[in-house]
Every structure is written in structure tokens, then in C-alpha cells.
Amino acid sequence: MTPEYVTARSLTVKHGFFTRRGGVSQGAYASLNCSASSADAPEKLRQNRALVAGTLGIDDAMLVGVKQVHGRGVHIVNAPWPYGQGPEADALVTRTRGVALCVVTADCAPVLLADVKAGVVGAAHAGWRGACGGVLEAVVDAMLNQGAQRGQVQAAIGPCIGQASYEVAADMRDAVLANSTGAEKFFAKGGRTDRWHFDLSGYCQARLAMCDIESEELRLDTCVDDARFFSHRRRVLNGGGPIGHQISVVVA
Q: pLDDT tens, 54-72?
């Protein structure tokens, strides 16, 4: 089965938000698991990465990822490194032709960005902590420092947990509100006392808009679609266990 992926109309560079379909992993990791931090068989992971690269028509040695830590760190990529040896960061930027930046997610928002004219691309892993902490502003700033122009940057927010699925407690809401003026509109009252539903995708779009970057939202809820997406929240609701991650890629 060929790996399944979706694209954003607004991104005119080679890219893909891949689903969990079309890989070789089995069990809880079925089938296109691309998380190097999982307990999946290393050979299965390498095969899955090769399938992703082949689907986009690139060499899998050009796929570059980082050790994601839910922060705001950005790494500038001048050349690819060996699989699994990336630094700790949650975003990447490159202007090196042929390099493919990738992030893995299982409810967090994958955000892909590109300035086609300048030849600069970026990718960010944006959970609520990273988005609240400024990872999207950081990746935009890094792209501008590499020669991108604010009015030329295209951005897309890929599949992530939807608001109806994302119930959060008061401490998380308080943290977001303390950091973000006007963020109340991204919280809807939940069905339980002191619980709210958070719109992660909309919040990411608003943070990008504050940088004068327009973005497209794919609005695909990873939590409700077990057939197409891995989901950390769904795993927790089902009692835990191993989990895979889908990959999103943008090519310079």
C-alpha cells in the first residue's frame, strides 16, 4: 500500500502531511509509524521513512528530524545528518536545496512553512506548550533570518487534535491565558466543572497571524480517526499502551 498523505492548497512546494496508512509496522504501530523514540522495530522505522521519501520522490537520507521536546528551539539545517542523530528542538529551517524537514506528531499540530521565492522552508512541532511558548514565532524569525520575506511565507497547519476532542483542565487554560492576550476565544466550556475544550489549530493560526503570516488549517481531528491517525489522547482514554507517530514533511 502506498503511504497516504494530504497536502495544503496554500503550500506550493513539495510537502505532505502523512497519515498512519501505508507502512510496514504492525500492532499498535500499524502501519506508517515514523517515531524514532518509539519501541517499534528499527528496521520497520527505516522502511517507513524510505516509503515516505519515495512517495515524495526524494532520497530518504535527505529526511531530517530533531528530538522534539515541546519547546521553542529552532535548528538551522545546512546539511542532513544520520537518522536519529538530530539535536533537541521543535522546529527546523533550511535553505539547502533537496533537504526535507520533518516533524512527527500524535495530536500536536505539525506546521509547515515555505517562502518559494527565497527558497527557505520551515517545519514546527506545535503542541499547546510549544505554541504558547513561542515556537511558531521562533520558526518564522529563523526563516526571515535565512532570507525569507514575511509577505511571501506560506504556512499550513496539519492534522491535530480537534477542539471537540481536546478537553483540558483549568491549569492549562490559565497558562495559555497568562501568555496570550485574547486567547479566551479558543476555549469552549466543557461538560465537566473546571474543564474546557481547546482549539489548538485555531490558536496556532492566531499565533502565526500575530507574525503577519496567513495560514491554512486542514482541520483533521487526529483523536477521532483511528484508521488514519495516531493519537496520544485516544491512547490515554483507552488505557495507555504503545503509540506511533505520523510524519509531516516539507522539501526545500
A: 999 999 999 999 999 999 9
Mean pLDDT score of the chain: 97
Read off the amino acid at residue 82.
P
Question: What is the torsional sign of CA 176, 178, 179, 182?
Answer: positive
Distance CA 249, CA 51 (A): 13
Residues 6+ apart with CB under 8 A from 53: 59, 60, 62, 63, 100
The phi, psi pair for 165, rounded to 5°, reads -95, -10
User: 3-class DSSP state for residue 111?
Assistant: strand
Nearest to 126 by CA among 153, 143, 104, 93: 104
Measured distance CA(168)–CA(183) in Å, rounded = 14
Buried-exposed string 170-181: b where 16+ CB fall within 10 A, e elsewhere: eebbeebeeebe
Chain centroid to Cα 211, Å, comes to 19
pTM for the predicted model, two decimal places: 0.98
* Domains in the chain with CATH codes: 5-160+216-251 (3.60.140.10)
Q: In what order do the strands lie in the sheet with 5-6?
A: 5-6, 15-18, 246-251, 100-105, 63-64
φ and ψ of 74, to 5 deg: -120, 135
Other C-beta atoms closer than 10 Å to the C-beta of 242 total: 12
* 137-156 pLDDT, tens digit each: 999 999 999 999 999 999 99
Q: Taking a C-beta distance cutoff of 8 angstroms, is the pair 223, 159 a contact?
A: no
